[in-house]
Write a structure and sequence with these properties.
alpha/beta; Immunoglobulin-like; 12 helices; 26% helix
Length: 517
Amino acid sequence: MEKKDPYLYTAQVVLLRDGTELDCISTRFGCREYRIDPEQGFILNGERYPLRGVCRHQDRPDIGNALLPCHHEEDISLILEMGANTIRLAHYQQAQDMYEFCDEYGLVVWAEIPYISAHMREGRENTISQMRELIIQNYNHPSIVVWGLSNEITMMTPTDEDMLENHRLLNDLAHQMDPTRLTVMACVSMCPIDDPIVRIPDVVSYNLYFGWYGGRPEMTGSWLDDFHEQYPMTPIGVSEYGAEALNWHAARPHQGDYSEEYQAYYHEAHILQMFTRPYIWATHVWNMFDFAADGRSEGGENGMNHKGLVTFDRKYRKDAFYAYKAWLSDEPFVHICGRRYVDRVENPSLITVYSNQPEVELFANCVSLGKKTAEDHFFRFEAPNDGITVLTAVAGDCRDEILIRHVCEPNPAYIFNEEGAVLSWQEISETDGFYSLNDTLGDILKSDEGMALLESKVLSRIPERKGPLGDTKESDAMKKLQQSFTVVRLIRLSHAPFTKDELLEINARLNAIPKAG
């Protein structure tokens, strides 16, 4: 049972009395054998089969979750176009149509219950009921290989015996009802790898957002290596990772600017780290599609999470979509990044091309800029940006074309401006050996002088319950995550009411504080 040969059988049961048919029922099923190895990752029918895919929220504009079969099929077609072979159906039961399409196309599925972010003592019976129904309703779907116990359950509440017992009950129930499948859970990044809850399921994945909520994208690989070294017998995967992108653009993208260019850079870095480590059993991008999230206020469009590789309406594939297609799809293609980034100040302009072909040639107004090869499928060119330039990429029989236009000043329509304090990355002055707002909270807190400044001028003004940070009083893990944020990123996410002049004054004072050794 895999993408290249997703063959299904039909079992039919007929109830007879004296040769007369009283009832008849049929169900489809598939045959496959799999295991998850801590060194070799996912093994399907005796062969390594690295799971590379996405998480999926199903909602859409205007219709919410009231989807028709055609909507599920469209989602599947986009996921297959990208080349993915696995879907994490997060964080709830989805329509039978979706499971059936996954069966038909040979996609590998992680199915889970909505036990999320916070453990509730009074919710135990509900979690057990949810798990029982999930397995009863979906047992015959060969696409499903793991049952998910929970998602980021230690984010808002620390691990205690009641939480552990709840997970043990769910784990035992899943094995009793279905001894053929494994169990899994998605751990929040701040959950210590030696936390006893991590040892309960058969396999584990972590939600790692280095490079978006804090830290750098390059930290993901070393984090995974550290886990694998300390727990070599526990299969480890990545259940979520991603960065938000709207129709904002930047020649020098940076963390937190919500630009399509930063999202592409972020995913390039993660592809190179995760797809080259054979022990990682599965990777699931958060998310395949932008989705509604009532409590969020980021990127200039409230009530949405924009980490999707495809827009909410399914009409636009962001550049990062094609970075994955270059690695995962066998369908020949070439894609020039920056289609929506037309007006550009920089000359020359850096052009990135994604392709699964061995060689790409780029033309500027029909003049060749040369041919390039790229083992990582990410081809880089410098293109002249004088007047209007038509860029054409050619890779074998594949072609793609975009237009760029030279302007003297940055197009304000490409720059996300938040309400209240607005500081661009370039406006934050930095001095070698001294702090700035671009340093992480954790690094600045190493200095007594830096700590005193942050506590008096920044931390005292950040609301305790605001934005995606949640209630920071309830979780040491959340405080640990905050320490990996740059100060300017922390302020943006918390929506604290700072003026631009106030932030520049704080940055000037940080510039006078030497970094701790």
